[in-house]
Structure formats: C-alpha cells, structure tokens
Amino acid sequence: MTEVMDLSLSRNYNGGMRDFDAWLHDLATRPLPGGVSAAALASAMGTALVAKATRVSVQRQDVGEPDRALLQAVLDLACNRQQVLLDLAEADEGAYRAVLESRPQGHGIPATDEARRRAIEVPLQVAEACHLLLSRLPGILDLCWPPVAPDLQVGQWLLEVGLRAGLSAAEGNMRAWPDAGKPGLWQAR
Questions:
Q1: Burial 18-37, CB ≥16 within 10 A → b, else e
Q2: Mean pLDDT, 10 residues at a time, the chain of 189 residues
Q3: Which residues are CB-contacts of 158 (< 8 A; sequence separation ≥ 6)?
Q4: Would you say 32 and 4 are in contact if contact means Cβ atoms under 8 Å apart?
Q5: How many helices (H) and strands (E) does the chain have?
Q6: pLDDT digit string (tens) for 142-181?
Q7: Residues of the chain above pLDDT 70, percent
Q8: Which helix (H) or strand (E) holds 9?
Q9: Distance spanning both ends of the chain, measured CA to CA
Q10: Which residues contact 90 (CB under 8 A, 6 or more apart)?
Q11: Omega of the bond prior to 33 within 30 degrees of 0, cis?
Q12: C-alpha span between 15 and 10 (Å, rounded)
C-alpha cells in the first residue's frame, strides 16, 4: 500500500524555514503534499506580495480617492484569499489522502466516489480563488509605488500558477474518474 502520512501544513509546518524545508523534502519524496498543495501555497505567497504592493502603494502613492479605494479593495481581497489558499493547500492534501486510502475499496463505493469528487473540487476552488484576485489586478500596476511594482508582478505570476495548476489537476482528475459526479458543472466553472 502507498505510504500516506499526515502532512498537514497548519499542524506540522508552522515553525519557520526549517519546517518549510521539511515540507519541501516531503513534496519531493512522498505522495503528499502534491502539486495542487504546492500551487496553492505558491499562490498564497502571491497574495502576500499583492497585499504588500497595494498596502505600500496606499501609504506612499499620492492617488485620488477612487484609486485609493481600488487599492484598498485589492488589499482586502488579497488578505482574504491568502487564508483561503492556505486552507485549500491543506484541503488538497486531505482530499488526495482520501483518494489514496479509498483506492483498495474500488469504484462505485460511496467513500471512493466522494474522495474523487473532493479531489476534483479542491483544485477548482484553488483556481477560483486565484482567478478572483487576478480579475481585480488589471490597472493596479499603474497605481503601484514603483519600488513595489515588481512584487505585484511576481504576485500575479504566482496566482497564475495556482489558476493553471488548479484547472489542470481538476481536468486530469475528471478524465481519470469520469464517473465521479458533476462533470458538466465542473467544466462550466
């Protein structure tokens, strides 16, 4: 049987860079965490960079009230999405752990079908969380204080990674498990 360990980000990887090193080691050597967890974590870092760039821009840039309100709205959304993405990184580990543990039970068993549905749903949620913030970024670069504009761009790229990874994983899982449930609804999303 495949080795599955409890690799919860919040419980086991919250003690600094050494713990992050352990998480990276597990990413490279164990079944979990996987690509969606890594992309969600990278995207959470992206939200932090977007938050920093917008926060500093609100403090340093002399912009009118509508632009200040736009920057503040993006800052608030980035802070919210950061926690969502961290939670989804952990949720992806749990969802895929359930898939691995249900494998011996086979197809058609409610627990297996639910595990597979969750392994499709979580990557879609990662993509949606990233898309929501990405949709608010056009025009923000022009409002950024120039020294933090590169942080905003890197943050955007990391969010794009989460969007692409979530969509790719959900699509791959839908192909692997076509009977897992709501394919039309998932594809529409």
A1: eeeeebeebbeeeebbbbbb
A2: 36 58 92 93 97 96 93 96 95 92 72 89 96 96 95 98 96 83 62
A3: 42, 43, 45, 46, 49
A4: yes
A5: 8, 0
A6: 999 999 999 999 999 999 999 999 999 999 988 888 776 6
A7: 83
A8: helix 9-12
A9: 34
A10: 8, 9, 10, 37
A11: yes
A12: 9
Q: Is 175 exposed, middle or buried (CB count within 10 Å of its CB: 0-12, 13-18, 19+)?
A: exposed
Write the single-letter amino acid at 185: L
Which residue matches tokens 């120039």? 146
Give the pair of three-digit tokens for residue 26.
Answer: 């597990």
Distance CA 83, CA 89 (A): 10
CB neighbours of residue 160 within 10 Å: 15
Say if pTM beats, i.e. exceeds, 0.90.
Answer: no
Taking Cα atoms as reference points, which of 67, 86, 90 lies closest to residue 140?
67
